[in-house]
Amino acid sequence: MAAARWWPAAVLLVAWAGVPAVLAVWWQDTIPGSLRGSGDALAAAGRLSGLLAAYLLLLLVASMARIPWLENRVGSDVVARWHRALGEYTVLLAAAHAVLVVLGYARQSGTGPLAEAGTVLFHYPDVLLAAAGLGLLVLVGALSARAVRRRLRYETWYHLHLLVYPAAGLAFAHEFSVGADFSTSARNRLLWSGAHIAVALAVLVFRVALPLSRSVRHRLRVVRVVPEGPGVVSIHLAGRRLDELGAQAGQFARWRFLARGQWWQSHPYSLSAAPTPGHWRITVKDLGDSSAALARLRPGTRVWFEGPYGAFTARRRTPSRKVLLIAGGAGVTPIRALYETLPGRGDDVVLLYRASRPADLVLWSELQEIARSRGFALHPLLGPRSDGPDDPLSADRLRRTVPDAARRDVYLCGPDAMAEAVERQLRLVGVPRHRIHRETFAF
Ligand SMILES: Cc1cc2nc3c(=O)[nH]c(=O)nc-3n(C[C@H](O)[C@H](O)[C@H](O)COP(=O)(O)OP(=O)(O)OC[C@H]3O[C@@H](n4cnc5c(N)ncnc54)[C@H](O)[C@@H]3O)c2cc1C
Fold it and tell me: Quick one: which of 43, 49, 18 has its CA closest to 31?
């Protein structure tokens, strides 16, 4: 059984272990018999939700620190999914903390909630800063709601999302000055500060220092831009000592092309050919302003990059099993690199490539060449999209095209809607979930 499969569960277990630790801190500082009335209960619930919100906020920031080990073992898409779920709970718990504490104190002192809110905000140390942090967190949460997110440009959403960092900073001070669990315990203060420093360092090292130093050291440049089909170009990149980075087929990086109008944004693209010590290649479909502009890149353009990242590699595979690769649209890029590099011969590797029409089968002649030289099977699946049994990726057709599909490891990459539909069909065919490895092109 592939060890890679256990990493997500192991990481989740460690993260969940923090929750009983937080509960223990809260319980230890809750004086027996102190919860006499509803005011005490509300304030204690407020303290608990505040502690949990602070812990989740720390995990939220850590999950986006781009720690290479997490990105490569667990997978960037899985970490991004956790991040989204964590974000929702963090905002809810932080808002509940503010409301419960104010209501609890109001009950205890016999004042109205509004007057109490004013007292807490303006007379308790650092609470005004924390309220500003909560405001930022709620704003980011609202912007991330699917209905709002869909209407925003990716770059607008991404840059506003960075407000989570000041939000975490603004909330920190009040945890020590008014948080009963920290103001009275030097040990808790030490542990809590240590955890924050570790996460802040991870962000600085992995999001800033490492990409900068790699970009400077490896001096990546555009060598040439090759049209591959309608709206699709390959960008060949050359650099020094790229082998030190251990890039693998199936991985991606975030690329920042230092050309006019492009240097301020970075976008993820997968390696579309097996990486070599001096040469990488990506293949990009024009889906918006930035991807379209890449067709106009000039040879010599410097490239900064973050990565390589991703767990969609041969490491995921169960060693003794044959492999079925399924690609759709731009999803062919990591699949093309895997097709070239996966071990085996003959029908050990089968590739199904779904497209509407022949012109959309980009990199097709390269795939044919690999199929010829390694003896691997290659099937173009053409035709308009359909959800019915006639779709070439329906369970029935899959069984006919690849009779032993249920016994294979499956690597799947394509547009989200297609990938979800195909995953359902694969399950009907009998492929267990843990043997379906999916790369998603949307975070
Ligand atoms: C891990 C990964 C690997 C990818 N590999 C490839 C590849 O090999 N070839 C390829 O053609 N495409 C790939 N993509 C998709 C590619 O990143 C987007 O198509 C590209 O960023 C679109 O940018 P745009 O400004 O041209 O389009 P926009 O119009 O801004 O966006 C088009 C779509 O791409 C999403 N998007 C935009 N910017 C980003 C970003 N920085 N990160 C994540 N999503 C973004 C938007 O939310 C929108 O859904 C990959 C995406 C991911 C997450």
Answer: 43
